[in-house]
Amino acid sequence: MAINLNKALDKAYEGKSLKELADMPIEGFQGISEEGGKALAKLGVKTVRDLAEWKFVGWAQGIVALAKAEE
């Protein structure tokens, strides 16, 4: 299965494997500057893996998913 993530990534990371991207610096995403990366690093988010596993991301996803089912 081919997945094209090029619009989400800086040129330097295009064509990398998903395993490589999981450990990519957060600044490898288009739209996240070096300054933004430094701010996230202060919160413990340095890589894509860190972001995906960050407890606040999980909480936010859970709230949004449950909100869709709320009456």
List keywords for this structure.
mainly alpha; 71 residues
Please explain how this structure is put together.
With 71 residues, the protein is mainly alpha-helical. 49% of the residues lie in helices and 0% in strands. The protein is built from four helices and no strands. The longest helix is centred in the C-terminal third of the chain and has 15 residues, at 55-69.
State the gist of this model.
Helices cover 49% and strands 0% of the residues. It contains four helices and no strands.
The radius of gyration computed from the alpha-carbon positions, rounded to a whole number of angstroms, is: 14 Å
How confident overall, as mean pLDDT? Answer: 94
Low-confidence stretches: none
Global morphology? globular
* Secondary-structure element order, N to C: HHHH
* Biggest sheet overview: none
Please report the number of helical segments: 4
How many E-type strands?
A: 0
Measured between the Cα atoms of the first and last residue, the distance is 38 Å
Strand percentage: under 5%
What fraction, in percent, of the residue positions are helical? Answer: 40-55%
Structural class: mainly alpha
Question: Helices and strands in order, then pairings?
Answer:
Blueprint: H1 18-22, H2 34-42, H3 48-53, H4 55-69
